[in-house]
Amino acid sequence: MKVVGIIPARYASTRFPGKPLALIKGKPMIQRVYEQALKSVLDAVVVATDDVRIADAVMEFGGRYVLTDPNHRSGTDRCREALELLDAQYDAVVNIQGDEPFIDPQQINQVVELICRDDTDLVSLAKRIDDEDELFNPNTVKVVMDKQGNALYFSRNPIPFMRNLDRKEWFAKGTFYKHIGIYAYKAEVLRQIADLQPTTLELAESLEQLRWLENGLNIRMGLTESENVSIDQPKDIEKAERFAENQMNTKK
After folding, report:
1. Would you state the pLDDT for residue 249?
2. Is the pTM value of this prediction over 0.85?
3. Long-range contacts of 14-19 (CB under 8 A, 24+ apart)
4. I need a surface site. Which of 53, 78, 96, 216 has the fewest CB within 10 A?
């Protein structure tokens, strides 16, 4: 099975315009994501962007890119267009977040291994929550799964609800998982979900993956112990530079 990694990278961003080109220790963030993806088992890696400035940056460091419509609703839609623009046929796609410059290649390998199974159409990852504040943070997306590892529901609220327990006891007496936002899709499934319209649950929680569940699709969840540094706004660059510095010092 041939699997391509696609990195959606748009220039416009409310909180951080031009984010893919932000420098981290002198290297554009999109380049760092691309180079990490190349360390995985993917057959190819491509940046899907809507802006020639990002395309020029990718070309400068020797990467591959495709130019896509600037009006896509999500990274999933951008991945779907990119898949159709590629000059080779692929059986599956990994959607790699463009704002995780230090993404663990082993996480990419994990979703590739899962998506290559015959009974798997969609894949993502989850990590056990180990911080009480994170459990009640609506910016942390939680997920519950069935015994086969398929997602049952995603929410910004803590799930499951711990009935008859004081909120202070939830973390000590329950097991909770956060969603790690990397996706893999069979190619035909990516084409299918990109045509789906927003659903009630998706609009309520502002979580695209609920659209897929509402339409009867299964999302197989792999468990991971690692979490990546994500860049959401300009102040996060300092955190990323500290991480990069620590990596360089470790390699010495």
Report:
1. 65
2. yes
3. 15/232, 15/233, 16/231, 16/232, 16/233, 16/234, 18/53, 19/98, 19/99, 19/231
4. 216
